[in-house]
Write a structure and sequence with these properties.
Oligomer: single chain
Shape: elongated
Number of strands: 28
Number of helices: 3
Length: 442
């Protein structure tokens, strides 16, 4: 378009309950009025921008205020996703944190979307000023350069109103003139579609969901059949009891004993003062071992548990540390305790510093009487603070990294058990429960 006002770019805008990433299509279109209502109610909806007459979108925005989330995908003319932006609604609900940004720079028209050799970069930011920039000029198979964002990087955006969102891709592509939005012509049934997106196909874009606990109780239910992906069938055996833990302060610590923070343990869980049973969830399985040239059977530990009550847990939650904000988590991400020595511990938080010093004196310095080894168990070491009676029991994990702490609660909301998975959560086979009932998959 031209004229006295100069060139403009017309962009078609449409709304829907969801966006099918695989089909690049709207799922259950909405009128602008219906989308505006969902925006005000905090319910998820998507906005799709296209140049009129083109099938490939310019960009797609997903909004879900109840999840504190706004996402953006930008597309090129070949229909490949080139940019992803993850914004999080924090603070006083007026600002959005630019939590993550990713970019793919395709080197040819024939290069497939997300090709492993495609140059890429990603930025991760936190509200406290931390962050990182990762650059892979040769793609994921090349070297990775990690740097710290400079002070000039833009972390925050003002939360736009429903009609005030810019078309980011138009600016980035250098499309001529200002953008003029026009409503897309929707199917006649658009206003009649239900407002429930729970039935959307699995290929539809959704707000990121933090890691879920899975059927943790199944790991302690003898006879349950599971698989870890490597061994097609493993059978849960009776949980192994490995002593008790005294928590006289009424505050349980779950942390990596190798990293003493000035702020104390990574995670704490209030429990009634007392002495609690420690258990290991175990699975028995067999496999053909080429090194031994025959069939081998073994029993491995999949999780460790502190039982607070005989009442079974009916619900599970990821326990957060004092500085953990679940609004920052991406898809299947976790908070928990960190370890660089493949070790975690249950301990009395009231005597944390003393117990940790005893742990170091026993394990590192070999001081007699500072602690005791626990033989033939995933639990490794016990230390005891004589002044308070509080104890620390360290356990092995199967690697370094971050391990979530799962708290199981009974029907009345009381803490029933605290569990740490020391292995990846196995999948429960559909006919795998001990009583023959179908168990939910992990």
């Amino acid at each position: 378009m031209g004229g006295d006002q100069g060139p403009v770019t017309v962009v078609e805008v449409a709304y829907a309950l969801a966006w099918d990433l695989e089909a690049r299509a709207l799922w259950r279109p909405l009128t602008a009025e219906a989308a505006r209502e969902r925006d005000g109610a905090g319910l998820p909806y998507v906005v799709v921008y296209r140049i009129p007459g083109r099938e490939v979108p310019l960009e797609v925005r997903l909004v879900s205020w109840r999840d504190h989330y706004v996402g953006l995908w930008a597309y090129d003319d070949q229909g490949r996703r080139t940019d992803e932006l993850d914004l999080r609604l924090l603070d006083d609900q007026s600002r959005l944190l630019s939590r993550r940004a990713r970019r793919w720079q395709y080197t040819g028209l024939e290069m497939a979307e997300f090709d492993g050799e495609c140059p890429r970069s990603s930025t991760e930011l936190f509200p406290d000023g931390r962050g990182s920039i990762r650059q892979q000029p040769q793609g994921e198979r090349g070297r990775t350069l990690v740097t710290v964002p400079g002070a000039d990087i833009r972390r925050w955006e003002v939360r736009p109103g429903f009609d005030d969102w810019p078309v980011v891709t138009a600016r980035r592509r250098g499309l001529p003139g200002p953008v003029v939005l026009q409503a897309a012509v929707l199917a006649s049934h658009a206003a009649e579609t239900p407002d429930d997106a729970s039935g959307a196909p699995a290929t539809c874009w959704r707000p990121p969901r933090p890691a879920q606990p899975g059927p943790i109780d199944a790991l302690f239910r003898p006879g349950t059949r599971v698989t870890d992906g490597y061994h097609p069938e493993m059978t849960v055996v009776e949980p192994r009891r490995t002593g008790t833990l005294r928590v006289p302060s009424g505050l349980l610590a779950v942390s990596g004993p190798d990293n003493l923070s000035d702020d104390g343990p990574a995670v704490t869980v209030p429990v009634p003062p007392g002495e609690y049973v420690l258990e290991e969830a175990q699975v028995h399985f067999g496999y053909d071992c080429e090194w031994r040239q025959g069939w081998v059977t073994r029993t491995d530990t999949t999780a460790v548990r502190l039982r607070v009550s005989e009442t079974p847990a009916l619900s599970w939650e990821m326990r957060l540390g004092p500085d953990d904000d679940p609004r920052l988590l991406g898809e299947n991400e976790i908070f928990g305790f960190e370890t660089d020595s493949a070790t975690g511990c249950f301990a009395d938080a009231g005597a944390w510093e003393s117990l940790h010093r005893l742990f170091e004196r026993h394990l590192v310095q070999g001081e007699p009487g500072a602690g005791e080894d626990i033989p033939d168990s995933m639990y490794l070491v016990r230390t005891r603070d004589e002044a308070s009676g509080g104890e620390l029991v360290a356990f092995a994990t199967t690697g370094d990294g971050t391990y979530p702490v799962w708290v199981g609660r009974s029907a009345d909301g009381a803490v029933a058990e605290v569990v740490v998975l020391v292995e990846v959560m196995p999948t429960v086979l559909k006919d795998g429960s001990a009583d023959g009932a179908e168990a939910a998959p992990a």
